[in-house]
């Protein structure tokens, strides 16, 4: 257990006084946390944030605690630094089960990954915040990702971007200076931008905590008075664009002088202004034939209703989606050094936080096959029971995200409770949950307008192929590794499929699989975690397949003297993430987000 920091790294500027101490104590009693990578990761570690005395925050502006769970990848570390900079002071950092992110100051409180330690850490954090919310000289926060550079863009053709002043080659207008993130590589640039002044830009939140289904756009800026440092030049805040910060562009100065520019070749008319026909002739046409600017807007990697670590880049044509692409900021790399078999099992398990048992079982089976060991039928049934228990908890976790995305608070609360109850439950406890799970299914099926909201959304293209998991089975495909497993056949397993291939069908498919998994657990017996048997110094090649909650995962590896020297991992999410582009194209923004969420993508299961 780590001791709390003596001073708050994100204290607000102000000389300590009785009034400020009272404010600090009030803030300490109302902790609102932004969870990174996301609330779903907290749940799979059996962490109940609400029971510990904190509430969830959907956006940085609503949070005073940044809760970091586990170790972050480099890309997610950078994105989280921007999140932290966007949080208003006073703000605190709480780290559970891992080191403090490299881009951050020292954590105010650190603890292990357990509910008991979370509760203790919350108590310590409340004391630190109550006593150190204000400081005469608070520590400035800066990170490389927050640095800016100047680039020049055409006001009418935002795709025209140059590093030097000049004119647009499409319309001849003067290019306008704007700030951009210091990293020119779009893949490396996190989707948010902070000026590390503690300004809170309410209309700059397209992906972190901004629910586009409810269009809660704030068209004003809140200027907090605790600037971390003075910017070397002034800003005209009246000319911020809603989408600028998504590309780390921040402030865009629209004032420009056309007087010294030669607009040869363009028909400006007698007034000196260009014809709108001329200006818009090169713009893409919308479905209704209108010419509009297309804006690239990132959502994630901490967007409510989407899994943490997933970055969704959408090109918006008004409130419709022209095109889109999803990438992972936390995907596992297949590159590895020679490591012991036991270490490989633990690393693969840790790398897949949303389905750790599935990948533990996958690694154990592949290694044992490479070592020439026969399947141990005495433990196989117990492992099947544990695998189905994880499937139930995973589908409930997806329902939590669905509730958060659709604004169904009752669904979020109920599914959260059931997921926590089922994750480590015994066979008897799981059987006792059957009435509650049946009641949840019944309520969802009779929820007013839910079917209307999901039916027809995210329908798979007719040429979709190599789909896996519930996504495939909801589209009438019987693809399921469990069909070929002898233990599952003994238990009477039958593949269940649905029709429609849309978000509604995927919801019904997962609800049906929860019931089927309960039946299998009743027949298989007490769940037990997979344990790698002794393989000594065996050498060989092995392969295995497991039907994870999101679909089939295949692992091939090579052993030399008990060491894993190479492996190839193929997962369902590697295939299903490719559906995003077709599912979002031409959809309204809210429908596109629902479609992506219905795929239940795990960014950790996407190879980087």
In short:
The chain is α/β, with parallel strands linked by helices. It has helices spanning 18-28, 39-44, 74-86, 115-132, 276-280, 341-351, 356-370, 377-406, 409-423, 427-432, 434-445, 450-454, 469-473, 486-490, 503-524, 572-576, 580-584, 589-598, and strands at residues 12-13, 31-36, 54-56, 65-69, 92-96, 109-111, 134-135, 148-153, 161-162, 176-181, 199-201, 221-223, 294-299, 310-317, 320-328, 339-340, 540-548, 551-560, 563-570. Among the domains are: 12-135, 3-Layer(aba) Sandwich (Rossmann fold), CATH 3.40.50; 339-605, Orthogonal Bundle (Cytochrome-c3 Hydrogenase, chain B).
The residue fraction in helices comes out at 25-40%
Extended strand count: 19
Uncertain segments = 183-271
The CATH superfamily of the domain at 339-605 turns out to be: Cytochrome-c3 Hydrogenase, chain B
Please name the CATH architecture of the domain at 339-605. Answer: Orthogonal Bundle
Task: Give the strand order of the largest sheet, numbering strands 1, 2, ... along the chain.
Answer: 3-2-4-5-6
The CATH class of the domain at 339-605: Mainly Alpha
**SS-based class:** alpha/beta
Terminal residue distance: 33 Å
Number of helices: 18
- Beta content comes to 15-25%
Mean pLDDT comes to 83
Q: Globular, elongated, flat, extended or rod-shaped: what is the shape?
A: globular
Cα Rg: 26 Å
Characterize the biggest β-sheet.
5 strands, parallel
In the CATH hierarchy, the third-tier topology of the domain at 339-605 is known as Cytochrome-c3 Hydrogenase, chain B
């Amino acid at each position: 257990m780590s001791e709390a920091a003596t001073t708050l790294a994100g204290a607000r500027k102000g000389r300590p006084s009785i009034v400020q101490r009272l404010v600090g104590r009030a803030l300490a009693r109302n902790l609102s946390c932004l969870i990174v990578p996301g609330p779903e990761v907290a749940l799979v570690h059996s962490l109940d944030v609400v029971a510990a005395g904190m509430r969830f925050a959907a956006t940085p502006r609503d949070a005073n605690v940044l809760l970091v769970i586990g170790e972050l990848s480099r890309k997610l570390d950078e994105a989280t630094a921007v999140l932290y900079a966007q949080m208003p002071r006073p703000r605190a950092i709480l780290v559970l089960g891992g080191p403090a992110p490299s881009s951050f100051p020292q954590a105010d409180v650190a603890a292990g990954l357990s509910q008991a330690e979370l509760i203790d850490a919350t108590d310590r954090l409340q004391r630190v915040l109550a006593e150190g919310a204000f400081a005469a000289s608070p520590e400035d926060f800066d990170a490389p990702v927050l640095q800016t550079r100047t680039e020049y863009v055409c006001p009418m053709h935002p795709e025209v971007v140059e590093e030097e002043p000049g004119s647009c080659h499409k319309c001849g207008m003067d290019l306008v200076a704007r700030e951009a993130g210091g990293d020119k590589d779009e893949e490396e640039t996190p989707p948010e931008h902070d000026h590390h002044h503690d300004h809170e830009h309410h209309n700059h939140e397209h992906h972190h905590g901004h629910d586009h289904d409810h269009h809660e756009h704030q068209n004003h800026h809140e200027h907090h008075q605790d600037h971390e440092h003075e910017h070397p030049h002034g800003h005209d805040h009246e000319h911020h664009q809603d989408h600028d910060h998504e590309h780390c562009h921040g402030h865009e100065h629209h004032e420009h002088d056309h007087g010294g520019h030669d607009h040869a070749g363009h028909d400006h008319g007698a007034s000196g202004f260009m014809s709108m026909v001329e200006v818009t002739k090169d713009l893409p046409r919308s479905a209704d034939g209108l010419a509009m600017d297309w804006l690239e807007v990132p959502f994630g990697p901490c967007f409510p209703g989407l899994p943490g670590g997933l970055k969704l880049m959408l090109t918006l044509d008004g409130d419709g989606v022209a095109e889109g692409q999803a990438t992972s900021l936390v995907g596992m790399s297949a590159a590895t050094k020679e490591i012991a078999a036991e270490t490989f099992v633990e690393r693969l398990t840790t790398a897949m936080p949303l389905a750790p048992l599935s990948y533990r079982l996958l690694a154990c089976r592949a290694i044992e096959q490479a070592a020439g060991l026969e399947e141990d039928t005495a433990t196989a049934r117990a492992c099947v029971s544990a695998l189905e228990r994880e499937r139930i908890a995973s589908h409930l976790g997806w329902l939590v995200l669905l509730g958060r995305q659709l604004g169904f608070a009752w669904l979020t609360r109920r599914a959260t409770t059931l997921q926590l109850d089922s994750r480590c439950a015994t066979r008897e406890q799981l059987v006792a949950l059957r009435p509650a799970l049946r009641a949840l299914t019944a309520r969802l099926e009779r929820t007013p307008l839910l079917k209307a909201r999901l039916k027809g959304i995210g329908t798979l293209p007719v040429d979709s192929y190599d789909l896996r998991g519930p996504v495939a089975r909801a589209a009438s495909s019987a693809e399921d590794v469990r069909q070929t497993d002898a233990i599952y056949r003994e238990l009477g397993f039958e593949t269940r499929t649905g029709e429609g291939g849309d978000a509604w069908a995927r919801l019904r498919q997962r609800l049906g699989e929860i019931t089927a998994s309960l039946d299998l657990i009743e027949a298989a017996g007490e769940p037990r975690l997979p344990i790698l048997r002794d393989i000594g110094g065996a050498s060989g090649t092995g392969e295995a397949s497991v039907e994870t909650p999101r679909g089939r995962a295949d692992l091939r590896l090579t052993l030399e003297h008990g060491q894993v020297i190479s492996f190839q991992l193929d997962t369902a999410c590697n295939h299903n993430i490719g559906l995003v582009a077709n599912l979002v194209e031409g959809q309204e923004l809210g429908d596109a987000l629902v479609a992506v969420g219905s795929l239940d993508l795990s960014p950790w299961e996407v190879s980087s």
